[in-house]
Amino acid sequence: MNSYIRDIMRYFWLIGLFVFIAQESWAFVVSDTLIIDGEVIYIEERNSPMTDSLNQARKNDFKEKRKAPVWGLDGGFGFQMTDFSISNQVYPELVGVNEFLGISNNTVYHSNFGLGAYFRAHKNIEIGVAILRSNGTTKESNALAYNTGNTVSFFTSENQIEQVFQTEVQPGVFELDTVSLSTFSQTFSISSLQVPLKFRFYVNDFTVKSTWRAFGEISPIYRSFKLKNTGENSNQMLFMNSAGSFVNANLSNQNWNQFGVLVGVGSEFQLTKKLNAFAQANWSFPPVNKVAESGVNYNMQYSNLFLGLRILMNDGK
User: Fold this and answer.
1) Is the pTM of this model over 0.85?
2) Are residues 115 and 200 in the same domain?
3) For residue 93, what is the domain's CATH number?
4) Residue 239's domain spans which residues?
5) Which site among 19, 27, 40, 148 is 20 to 30 Å from 230 CA-CA?
6) Residue 259 and residue 221 in contact, taking contact as beta carbons nearer than 8 Å
7) pLDDT in tens, the chain (317 residues)
8) What are the angstrom distances between the C-alpha of 142 and each of 155, 163, 181?
9) Contact (Cβ atoms closer than 8 angstroms) between residue 190 and residue 136
10) What stretch of H or E contains 56?
11) What is residue 52's three-state secondary structure?
12) Which residue among 160, 181, 202 closes a domain?
């Protein structure tokens, strides 16, 4: 074998060795198994998500901060108008002295005040709770009838109640007598504690040119009332009709709790960035009433007017 053939054979083996080594290396890279000294090694490919460390760090440094809720306190002082009346639930055909004299209702004005808190649920919607207190007195006309079973009728003359009754002067002979009843005022004290859950809706916003805004309000309300008979004249109330029927019903102190709805409208005026003044009128539904054991029905329908201030405690910034 000459040197030329030996050189060819040498290059052939070198090329073959290179090819063999290249194939084994490629199999090691792309194959999921690798055989080394007869031992099979399994290779699994896993995709790892690539993250931008700078971008992640930037997000950590600039996390969005949640805004604090917008909330505040308010308080007001005003007066309450109460239409107070007394009727007889057992004998509805009988009326009290006020109604018999033509006085349809008895409107009472007394002071009240309130304190509350609120938070902004939406741009133009606020939810709040308040405590309202009121105290006052009212007077109801009353009279004492002559306790006789021979009453014929009652009538009025010059704002005076007259009682007509018959008297037997001889056997089988009767005569009619008329007597004027002495009327007086029966005094009651009324106090209340009311807790409304307020939903306020603003019609417009404050602007550079306008520093006032209008609102409406609707509130489910818890109402607690106390009624006390403070008059020393009588512990009974007279009910009668023109046909001569009458009854004296016992009066008693009353405590009662009822739920209702309070509807209000008003205006708010901006004084500073965190201080507003407001004026508000409210109406309560349905009427408040309580029937005592004696059958006396105490009925009240009321509304109120408030003037107050609102302090913004947190503006959410």
Assistant:
1) no
2) yes
3) 2.40.160.20
4) 71-144+184-314
5) 148
6) yes
7) 555 456 555 545 655 554 455 445 544 444 455 555 555 565 555 555 555 566 665 666 555 567 788 999 999 999 999 888 899 999 999 999 999 998 876 788 889 999 999 999 998 999 999 999 999 888 889 999 988 778 999 999 988 999 999 988 888 888 999 999 989 989 999 999 999 999 999 999 888 888 999 999 999 999 999 999 886 667 899 999 999 999 999 998 999 999 999 999 999 999 999 999 999 999 999 999 899 999 999 999 999 999 999 999 998 77
8) 15, 14, 10
9) yes
10) helix 53-61
11) coil
12) 181
Do 156 and 24 lie in a common domain?
Answer: no
Chain position carrying tokens 């030329």: 4
Which residues does residue 289 pair with via DSSP β-bridges, in sequence order? 299
Lookup: tokens for 218: 């609707």
Q: Count of domains in the chain?
A: 3
What token pair was written down for 25? 């290396």
Q: How many other C-beta atoms can be found within 10 angstroms of the C-beta atom of residue 173?
A: 8
Give the integer Cα–Cα distance in Å for 229 and 169: 41
Cα(289)–Cα(257) distance, rounded to whole angstroms?
10
Asked if 270 and 155 sit in the same domain, the reply is: no
Tell me the C-alpha distance between 11 and 6, whole Å.
Answer: 9
Token pair for 275: 């201080």
Q: Locate all alpha helices (DSSP H) within 62-153, ordered by sequence.
A: 97-100
- Looking at the fold, whether 197 and 88 belong to one and the same domain comes out as yes
128 plus 259 within the same structural domain: yes
Cis amide bond preceding 286, omega within 30:
yes
41 and 78 both lie in a single domain: no
Q: Are strands 71-88 and 106-122 parallel, antiparallel or unpaired?
A: antiparallel
